[in-house]
Amino acid sequence: MDTKDIRSFRLVYEERSINQAAKQLFITPQGLSRIIHKLEEELQIALFERTKGGMVPTECGDYFYAQSQELLYQLEDMKYHLQKMNSRQRKIKIGFACGVLNLVSLKKLNAIQSEMPDVSVQWEELENQEVAEQVNRGLLDIGFIIGTIPGNEIESCVVYEGKMNVLVYPGHPFYEKERLSIEELKEQPLISLNQKYFSYHSFMQRCGDFGFVPNIIINTMESQLIYRFCNEKLGLGIDADIHKTDRLYPDIRRIELQDAIPWKVSMIYRKNEQVRFLVERLAQIM
């Protein structure tokens, strides 16, 4: 059973249309129909009823859709581990939660790689929860996440702890303050990173603790844009103190948000001897 066929089935199921799914897969409707027919023959069941209104899943189709995502995960896991076993050069995969790379010294990371010619270090940036899940499933050897996670099979150590700041532009009434509280932001237009980032969720949580929903007028994927929009006086910025420099906008003040949740970065890894030799070195890349 080809994983591409399963993914094609899932898209047809979600779109309820061969034509719409084919457009997203960049294949012809006829080609996609053949894939679905081949899958049905292999399983010896009907996955869909073909109607004028579109593709209507059968009971078997509903069940196969519900189970197929976990099946894809298992096949991906198996493929990854087989590739690792077959590789002569040992591979270590590292995942960084969105935003964490702002703290990382890539020079130190490359130096670690050069010291281990028999090891290939690969890294990628993912959402915070995705890093934790992939370490837990063995798809990543080491992860850097924001916050901490409990678990009997996962070891965790805090490698960085910082504060949340409010970015304030010249002329704003808060500009000369030394500290700000969550409550003082209640009526302010705010600029923040979006839902992919831990800082967004922790800030929303703390505002909820104080009984209000913040007026976030701009969500962005780029922390530098928070500085830019704040500099343009569109609102106050909410950001962690993770940047090596803020000299692009020297007039912007970073004021500590005193009752915010601290911004912690943890290194996580499964309890095995294969990555322990890297852990101490990687703890020094920030």
From TrEMBL:
<keyword id="KW-0238">DNA-binding</keyword>
<comment type="similarity">
    <text>Belongs to the LysR transcriptional regulatory family.</text>
</comment>
<dbReference type="InterPro" id="IPR036388">
    <property type="entry name" value="WH-like_DNA-bd_sf"/>
</dbReference>
<protein>
    <submittedName>
        <fullName>LysR family transcriptional regulator</fullName>
    </submittedName>
</protein>
<feature type="domain" description="HTH lysR-type">
    <location>
        <begin position="1"/>
        <end position="58"/>
    </location>
</feature>
<dbReference type="Pfam" id="PF03466">
    <property type="entry name" value="LysR_substrate"/>
</dbReference>
<dbReference type="InterPro" id="IPR036390">
    <property type="entry name" value="WH_DNA-bd_sf"/>
</dbReference>
<keyword id="KW-0804">Transcription</keyword>
<dbReference type="InterPro" id="IPR000847">
    <property type="entry name" value="LysR_HTH_N"/>
</dbReference>
<dbReference type="Pfam" id="PF00126">
    <property type="entry name" value="HTH_1"/>
</dbReference>
<dbReference type="InterPro" id="IPR005119">
    <property type="entry name" value="LysR_subst-bd"/>
</dbReference>
<keyword id="KW-0805">Transcription regulation</keyword>
